[in-house]
Q: What sequence folds into this?
């Protein structure tokens, strides 16, 4: 009888556990595991999501575009891509929201090349070079801006698509001559390799904006939870501003990049949870690039304001 009771108790616990799992409201956020997603990492580390009544589970990705793809496939409710993948997703007919920016960086995608003597960028590309970047994201758009701004012939550049984590090794082995990728990989290349030269776009040419994107259906059904997440990110912004040393320690530990590397690039990031006035204009300009370079089949620039939910920003 005792054995029967224990068996029934175990079955009851299993069933109960299944019910709890099915009814629990876990919000999955896919994030790019770099300092660009610092506010999300800090909010999770300091318990700010839980404080605001939301149970969040972070899912790690090497690039924001991969997190966005997972979100569009229904694997996560939210993601932290930059503005380029979101623009492309919208122009490809996907439905989603952008609830907030979570950071900006004017130096997010420097070009690192292997070259002796610190040549100018025009001299470096006076002969054909292999350049590695990440297609469909901000590094590809930054590459376009380098070629355009410095009048580099497209015929002298062979663009090779690689994952971010592959590029430093490719540059080290000389299988590519240059990389354009988001931080901290460019600084990691400079830290670990000899004979590198860095090129940057002039101020004002291109600023990367990292975003909190969200599944449209989920937000429409859970606006209060969305507001709570935004509130937690605002609190994370305050924490990072008031406690920069601790914030950098959190990001270094979570990203597994060295504290020295995180400290080197930290000041380049403007970590704020907001929607800037320039975001729509930026999307419109980038959409023209996507059309002109056949990144999308559409020839019409959509109304990007439909991506935004300003009512949820009032937290």
A:
């Amino acid at each position: 009888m005792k054995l029967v009771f224990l068996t029934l108790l175990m079955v009851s616990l299993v069933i109960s556990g299944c019910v709890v799992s099915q009814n629990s409201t876990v919000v999955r956020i896919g994030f790019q595991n770099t300092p660009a997603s610092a506010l999300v990492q800090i909010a999770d580390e300091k318990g700010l999501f839980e404080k605001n009544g939301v149970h969040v589970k972070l899912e790690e990705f090497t690039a924001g575009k991969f997190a966005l793809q997972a979100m569009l496939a229904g694997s996560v409710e939210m993601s932290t891509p930059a503005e380029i993948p979101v623009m492309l997703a919208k122009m490809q007919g996907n439905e989603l929201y952008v609830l907030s920016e979570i950071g900006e960086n004017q130096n997010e995608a420097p070009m690192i090349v292997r070259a002796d003597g610190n040549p100018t960028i025009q001299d470096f590309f006076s002969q054909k070079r292999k350049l590695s970047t990440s297609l469909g994201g901000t590094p590809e758009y930054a590459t376009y801006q380098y070629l355009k701004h410095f009048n580099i012939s497209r015929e002298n550049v062979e663009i090779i698509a690689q994952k971010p984590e592959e590029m430093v090794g490719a540059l080290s082995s000389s299988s590519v001559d240059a990389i354009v990728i988001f931080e901290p990989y460019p600084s990691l290349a400079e830290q670990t390799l000899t004979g590198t030269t860095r090129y940057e776009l002039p101020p004002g040419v291109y600023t990367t904006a990292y975003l909190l994107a969200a599944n449209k259906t989920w937000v429409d059904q859970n606006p209060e939870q969305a507001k709570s997440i935004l509130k937690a990110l605002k609190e994370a912004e305050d924490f990072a501003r008031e406690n920069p040393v601790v914030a950098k320690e959190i990001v270094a530990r979570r990203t597994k990049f060295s504290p020295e590397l995180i400290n080197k690039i930290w000041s380049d990031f403007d970590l704020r949870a907001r929607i800037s006035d320039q975001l729509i204009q930026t999307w419109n300009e980038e959409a023209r690039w996507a059309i002109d370079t056949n990144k999308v089949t559409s020839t019409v620039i959509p109304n990007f304001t439909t991506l935004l939910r300003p009512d949820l920003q009032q937290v």
Notes: The longest strand covers residues 96-105. The chain has two domains: 23-106+207-313, 111-199. The domain at 111-199 is CATH 3.40.190.10 (D-Maltodextrin-Binding Protein; domain 2). The chain has 14 helices and eleven strands.
